[in-house]
């Protein structure tokens, strides 16, 4: 239908090649960039982001009718977030949120020991702090929480100094497909709390955009580096909230 050398034909071909490589990677995730990725990362990431948006748009066309059919709504926490002042919402949704989520879910998946140490330290601190809080020990001894944080920080620092330039462990390479799919599934599942409905099972389809994001941004992290998945996540959140932001900016309450 389109000539191969035409602009539309070339664009469709470029999107097709991007989609095929993404599909091949998702089916068999492997660590490390390709030689063909070197020298044009910005353009490749732009095409990948366009593919991301097209996939989510197709999913949204199905999810919006389902939202009305099953009475699914945004959770109270999400509604409260969008009730904040404009600058706070932009800061949280478009800047701080994407950076924090990418650090937690994807920046470390390349398997460098320094990233693994930092993520293990963070998870240990969160788990230990939560355990102390649930047990009530923090209420009567704040020193326990401070001591736990100091011990984790010192252990992480020692590990970083020792293993800063160490290669990716062989055991990590062998489990990388599980890690890659695990981060995407977990990233999708935690976003189920963005919604509320009478039947919890009906909320699961609404995490599909985040699941797709977890797969595509994880692929970008491996192929192009940490900057790519963070930028894509920021741009995605900006587009996803652009309608609301426009209403807030142009509304009568904005001076």
Describe the overall structure.
- It is a single chain.
- With 255 residues, the protein is mainly alpha-helical.
- The chain has two domains: 7-111 and 171-250, no CATH class; 112-167.
- 74% of the residues lie in helices and 2% in strands.
- It is built from eleven helices and two strands, in the order ααβααααααβααα.
- The protein has helices spanning 7-27, 41-70, 76-82, 86-105, 113-135, 137-140, 142-163, 170-190, 208-224, 226-240, 242-250; strands spanning 73-74, 195-196.
- The chain has a two-stranded antiparallel ribbon.
- α5 packs antiparallel against α7, α8 runs antiparallel to α9 and α9 (208-224) packs antiparallel against α10 (226-240).
- The longest helix is centred in the N-terminal third of the chain and has 30 residues, at 41-70.
- The chain starts with 6 loop residues before the first helix and ends in a 5-residue tail after the last helix.
- The model has no long low-confidence stretch (mean pLDDT 85).
Beta-strand content bin = under 5%
Shape: globular
Order of strands side by side in the largest beta sheet? 1-2
The domain tally reads 2
Largest sheet: 2 strands, antiparallel
The total count of strands amounts to: 2
What distance lies between the first and last C-alpha atoms, to the nearest angstrom?
Answer: 50 Å
Proportion of helical residues = over 70%
How much is the average pLDDT? 85
Radius of gyration: 21 Å
How many DSSP helices?
A: 11
Alpha-beta content class? mainly alpha
Give the topology string: H per helix, E per strand.
Answer: HHEHHHHHHEHHH
